[in-house]
Amino acid sequence: MNLHAMLQARAEQGMPLRVGLIGAGKFGAMFLSQALHTPGLHVLAVADLDVERAREQLAATGWPADRYQASSPSKALSDGSTFITDDADELINAGGIEVIVEATGVPEAGISHALKCFERGRHVVMVNVEADALAGPLLARHAAQANVIYSMAYGDQPALIAEQVDWARACGFEVISAGKGTKYLPAYHGSTPDTVWDHYGLTPNQAARAGMNAKMFNSFLDGTKSAIEMAAVANACNLTPPDDGLKFPPCGVDDLAQVLRPVEDGGFLAQKGMVEVISSLHRDGTEVEKDLRWGVFVSFEAPSDYVQDCFKQYGVKTDDTGRYSALYRPFHLIGLELGVSVIAAGITGQATGVANDFRADVVATAKRGLEGGEVLDGEGGYTVYGTLMPAAKSCREGYLPIGLASGVTTKSHIANGQPIRFSDVEFDDTTLAYKFRREMEARFDPAGSLKND
Known about the structure:
This protein is α/β, with parallel strands linked by helices. The protein has helices at 3-12, 26-35, 51-60, 73-79, 88-92, 107-119, 129-145, 157-170, 196-200, 204-209, 214-221, 224-237, 256-259, 305-313, 339-348, 391-397, 432-444; strands at residues 17-22, 41-47, 83-85, 99-102, 123-126, 150-152, 174-182, 274-279, 296-301, 324-329, 360-366, 375-377, 384-390, 406-410, 425-426. The chain has 3 domains: 3-156 and 335-348, NAD(P)-binding Rossmann-like Domain (Rossmann fold), CATH 3.40.50.720; 158-184 and 223-241 and 250-331, no CATH class; 360-444, Antifreeze-like/N-acetylneuraminic acid synthase C-terminal domain (Type Iii Antifreeze Protein Isoform Hplc 12). It contains 17 helices and 15 strands. The protein has a 6-stranded parallel sheet with strand order 3-2-1-4-5-6, with helices on both faces. Strands 8-7-9-10 form a 4-stranded mixed sheet. Strand 4 (99-102), helix 6 and strand 5 form a beta-alpha-beta unit. The chain is globular, with a radius of gyration of 22 Å.
């Protein structure tokens, strides 16, 4: 797409691409570190509930102090500096902003911010995959109606997977599976913020000194984040989720084609065209050789004997039939790569992945036996983890999405490992996130007929 050349042209014309960042956490800070070294990008404003943290992140990523002292968005617009605020609405409404990066990680906030951006004609790069998994397909429709871009965040796994899927299909290959690697054992589903650092080989003090958030890292470990990311991929790439959760088969890069093929051909998949996550650990806890813990992959099939011969002739790694192969990327750079999405949305009018159907959902599942009157604490917490499943099944059974499973109270006993239904909890049906999610269920109606829970 020649993104760099197009951005350079904007810089030479004195018309930098102006960006706003909502949420100055790790992902946002990594983007800021690279934006500082990208001529043609002007971070006009940063919004964070903790203004001092935003200033600390800018300082930590090398920004000169005089670059982020603007007294107002209009001052930042005129002199090319950056304005910092605790008011996301002030950022969204700032004159001159073209693209807004939503990086709060909170579903309710993400939906609210995105809808306001669409009303103001702003493109949105949604780092907040929690919001995308909860209601991305409907957000994408609202963006299209507003004639703006709603995009996955390049650098995060879902956008990189979507890119690989697009590559395979553009080459004429059928996609057999797509996904990522992670560190997984079945016992991790019960991990809590109190036990998470043991699994990472850290002490709580070491994690605290590194500024690591226990709940966030526990979401990576207990399978919730993997489920959320694969829901986003399935909804963006028209792929199928497993019927009852990701299987996390142990697999190294040399075995991708062998493992990620249908069961009928000796592989691990129930069918062709699925999302899956592979583990860097065998079930006994030993490490997989040449693991893909930090990377992403797509597996695909040769459509003919001629192509199988081509695979052989050009040294393509295949399964034992010669029909299946896989492409992988060994790592992802999260916020350091985010500029690709920002430039693509702001200059070319293209998304680096976008939800186009409601095919997959992530439902809250009890981490332990829960009693009536307990308050669920959502992603990465003590009470629930996320299970990936088809949206049709989730809606038909009335299951509670993980994105709505925070701050709601259980009505009665829920067994360990049991998916939680809307009818199992007391919840506030006046919140934007709840109403928007219910609207999406009604509009897309993946089950064909929805139950009123």
